[in-house]
């Protein structure tokens, strides 16, 4: 353990999941991918499953380092409140759509995690729902044109969808009488045979259009057809396809961000983003996945209400740093834009992780180093650093909001 040194180069972990792309992260991080593996996510955090590594520190693993000296690394206030690095910073490259999911509140996560422990369900068991006792609010910032499903459509819009897609018209009375909850329950609890019978005519109609490239990404049919081609197994049709029509289909442009709190159903469909979230792995799934779907558990945590998508745009803060504000106490994401030759001085409050997306920067503290696109570094509590841009440079910073 070094006395005094509190700024380190940091190396994250590439996570391979089937839905990931092959080239984006390989290029950004300069990691060759000769076998074309799906490089889905890059994790910069202290999650025990894939901790980032500090260069020149002992221990090198960020989770172990923070555990050994919580107060000097996180600062006293954050160490006391969270007891660990509160956030996880990621870059995602979504080639195939991800499962529809919802995350629990902090209180529910604590209750349910304890309950599954009590029942003796192993942490790694495939039917285990709660991996930890934490909530998982998420903020995503688009790096490319990005598509996602985000919360239930407002009532009128959903009525419009259900009345214009002929194969879904049978759901109109369910929704107008029972609202979001009865509508969602209806399709999630439906026997598989019935799902197959109801969705087959829809897919028979839209899949040929998709294959002939006659559908646009603005149309739900495009994603429903793609979901069917990605996730249907044999003659089993994934019931998540209903949800493609229930949820807001949102297109986020580079530089724009979306926040998703507990209870809001969502699914990433395509694109690259920077994502920051509370340090948790608690995911309840609602289809578009070969993974475990626990319907009763899912229904307990979904908030059955309309969502009017709120796109967070850059506010024009004077200076070089743009902060994307959310209500989450666990994390804050900012973007730092420097022109060649510019210098900015930063006083680290708690623990801050920086990732360079473009350009090259000199990090100046007692022992300086440089960082180019794809490189990261970490500044622990009270570190004071200057960033001097060698070229026009873009960085993202993860930090803990001041209480
Ligand atoms: Zn999520």
Task: Characterise the protein shown here.
This protein is of the alpha+beta class. The chain folds into three domains: 7-148 and 252-288, Jelly Rolls; 159-249, no CATH class; 321-399, Jelly Rolls. Helices cover 28% and strands 29% of the residues. The chain contains eleven helices and 21 strands. It has helices at residues 24-29, 62-68, 70-74, 76-82, 106-118, 155-164, 172-189, 192-211, 220-231, 240-246, 295-301, and strands at 7-11, 13-21, 39-44, 53-54, 87-94, 101-102, 138-142, 146-152, 247-252, 257-260, 266-278, 284-285, 321-324, 332-338, 343-347, 352-358, 360-364, 369-372, 376-379, 384-389, 393-399. The strands form four sheets. Strands 2, 3, 5, 7, 8, 9, 10 and 11 form an eight-stranded antiparallel beta sheet that branches. A seven-stranded antiparallel beta sheet has the order 4-1-19-16-21-14-13, with no helix packed on it. The protein is globular. The protein starts with 6 loop residues before the first strand and ends with a strand.
Fold topology:
Elements: E1 7-11, E2 13-21, H1 24-29, E3 39-44, E4 53-54, H2 62-68, H3 70-74, H4 76-82, E5 87-94, E6 101-102, H5 106-118, E7 138-142, E8 146-152, H6 155-164, H7 172-189, H8 192-211, H9 220-231, H10 240-246, E9 247-252, E10 257-260, E11 266-278, E12 284-285, H11 295-301, E13 321-324, E14 332-338, E15 343-347, E16 352-358, E17 360-364, E18 369-372, E19 376-379, E20 384-389, E21 393-399
Antiparallel strand pairs: 1-4, 1-19, 2-3, 3-5, 5-11, 6-12, 7-10, 7-11, 8-9, 8-11, 13-14, 14-21, 15-20, 16-19, 16-21, 17-18, 17-20
Helix pairs in contact: 8-9, 9-10
């Amino acid at each position: 353990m070094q006395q005094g040194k509190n700024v380190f180069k940091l190396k994250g972990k590439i996570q391979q999941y089937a839905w990931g792309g092959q080239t984006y992260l390989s290029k950004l991080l300069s990691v060759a991918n000769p076998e074309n593996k799906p490089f889905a996510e890059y994790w910069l955090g202290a999650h025990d499953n894939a901790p980032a590594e500090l260069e020149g520190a002992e221990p090198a693993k960020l989770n172990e380092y923070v555990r050994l000296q919580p107060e000097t690394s996180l600062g006293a206030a954050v160490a006391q409140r969270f007891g660990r690095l509160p956030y996880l910073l990621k870059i995602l490259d979504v080639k195939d759509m991800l499962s529809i999911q919802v995350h629990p509140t902090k209180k529910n996560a604590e209750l349910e995690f304890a309950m599954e422990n009590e029942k003796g369900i192993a942490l790694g068991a495939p039917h285990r729902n709660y991996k930890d006792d934490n909530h998982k609010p998420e903020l995503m910032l688009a790096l490319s044109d990005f598509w996602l499903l985000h919360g239930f459509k407002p009532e009128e819009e959903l009525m419009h969808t259900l009345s214009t897609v002929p194969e879904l018209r049978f759901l109109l009375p369910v929704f107008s009488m029972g609202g979001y909850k009865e509508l969602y329950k209806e399709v999630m609890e439906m026997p598989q045979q019935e799902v197959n019978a109801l969705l087959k005519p829809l897919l028979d109609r839209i899949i040929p259009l998709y294959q002939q490239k006659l559908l646009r990404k603005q149309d739900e049919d495009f994603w429903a057809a793609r979901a069917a081609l990605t996730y249907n197994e044999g003659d089993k049709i994934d019931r998540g396809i209903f949800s493609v029509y229930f949820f807001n289909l949102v297109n986020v442009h580079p530089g724009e961000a979306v926040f998703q709190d507990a209870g809001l159903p969502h699914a990433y469909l395509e694109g690259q983003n920077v994502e920051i979230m509370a340090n948790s792995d608690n995911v309840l799934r609602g289809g578009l996945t070969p993974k475990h779907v626990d319907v009763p558990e899912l229904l307990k945590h979904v908030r059955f209400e309309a969502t009017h998508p709120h796109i967070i745009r850059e506010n024009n803060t004077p200076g070089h740093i743009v902060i994307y504000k959310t209500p989450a106490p666990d994390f804050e994401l900012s973007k730092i834009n420097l022109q060649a030759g510019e210098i900015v001085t930063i006083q680290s409050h708690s623990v801050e992780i920086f990732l360079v997306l473009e350009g090259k920067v000199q990090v100046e503290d007692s022992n300086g180093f440089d960082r180019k696109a794809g490189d990261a570094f970490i500044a622990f509590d009270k570190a004071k650093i200057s960033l001097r841009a060698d070229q026009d440079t873009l960085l993202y910073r993860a930090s803990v909001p001041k209480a």
